Amino acid sequence: MPDVARSARLxxxxxxxxxxxxxxxxxxxxxxxxxxxxxNPSAIAAVDLNGDGLPEIISADTGVLTDPRSERPANNExxxxxxxxxxxxxxxxxxxxxxxxxxxxxxxxxALPAPDLLVGSFHTVERRSESRDxxxxxxxxxxxxxxxxxxxxxxxxxxLRNRDADEQPIFTKPGITALVVHDFNRDDYRDVIAAGxxxxxxxxxxxxxxxxxxxxxxxxxxxxxxxxxxADLDGDxxxxxxxxxxxxxxxALWKGDAQGNFEEVDRFLGNGALPHKVRIADVNKDGRLDxxxxxxxxxxxxxxxYATGVFQFEVCQEVALGTSRSILEHExxxxxxxDLNGDGRVDIAAACFASGQVGVxxxxxxxxxxxxxxxxxxxxxxxxxxxxxxxxxxxxxxxxDGKKDIAVALWGANAVALLLGR
Length: 422
What we know:
Blueprint: E1 11-12, E2 16-17, E3 28-30, E4 35-36, E5 41-47, E6 56-61, E7 77-85, E8 88-91, E9 95-96, E10 101-107, E11 116-121, E12 134-141, E13 144-150, E14 176-182, E15 191-196, E16 201-205, E17 207-208, E18 212-213, E19 217-220, E20 225-231, E21 240-245, E22 250-256, E23 262-269, E24 275-281, E25 290-295, E26 301-306, E27 315-320, E28 332-338, E29 347-352, E30 357-363, E31 374-380, E32 382-383, E33 386-387, E34 389-396, E35 405-411, E36 415-421
Parallel strand pairs: 1-27, 2-27
Antiparallel strand pairs: 3-36, 4-36, 5-6, 6-7, 7-8, 7-9, 10-11, 11-12, 12-13, 14-15, 15-16, 16-19, 17-18, 20-21, 21-22, 22-23, 24-25, 25-26, 26-27, 28-29, 29-30, 30-31, 32-33, 34-35, 35-36
């Protein structure tokens, strides 16, 4: 196990608490229309699925997670909003997934040119013969999809998370919460690695020429892996992994060998109590990839772990959305880290569930000097007497004006709202 004492050597830059700018002052305006989706959308993606130059919007509609011994322990649908023209969408017949769809990835998995959809499900039923832990929706054209289902063999996996008063598991194994897609073993077929939060594992599905994926392999990942991202962190040309550990509060780094093997080389404590999402980007434009980690506890902040060497992130800058560490004001549930305004610098957007807002942190830095500087704008979602609670984010140019926009999946309202770049 890597030495977690390294966390004590982190250099903490001064906490940055930003005063909110005036509504909409930071470059986004809210589109007047909301688009209905299924219950409690927990993930969202935007991609042109039919080659018409307009992005479709897909949401993973989790519903309410109930007793896994019941017949229907959660919702099991994806909503698809087909683009008719810019900012106009028609809701399609839902795609059926496993119970509790929780994460979405888009990639070209088969030999057809159009992008396919991959969905990981968090919940299942006790009858494992009916489980659909990973579903590939093959895009066969005209917004039609062929589902291919994959189950994770869980006989050797332990359940390590919450239990009820009778000591029965509240959730199920493996509890997939995130997916990443890449040709990790360089065989020209895309692979999937999923975070199995309930069982402390990463689940590696090697790509296959005809079956699409082989039987999965398990990689032990103690601490409750909640999110996973892939990038070449050491410059050797191989894809490495970063995972956030929701149960232990750690960030783990994994070195890849381009053969489908990953070795945990280090882990360190995150800045907050509940690290939830991680994104990889060169925030300060020094040529090195940094880690942007959101925390959904009372810290209400985003921590930027700046790269200081190979698999080393020893400088941390915390950017707070809230005003107090003792009160849960925002509860960040998703985060983007990318250039949102076209100035070449990495900005940050956060879906704040408890406050019902999206916080956009615009990078106003002049150079690579640390700490980086940000301005903040907060966007609230109310329409027709309904209040939406942001749960997930994705970006695309939805109105084809050449500027990046943000799609927001809203719980409560069961809808998608759009923040349009100005």
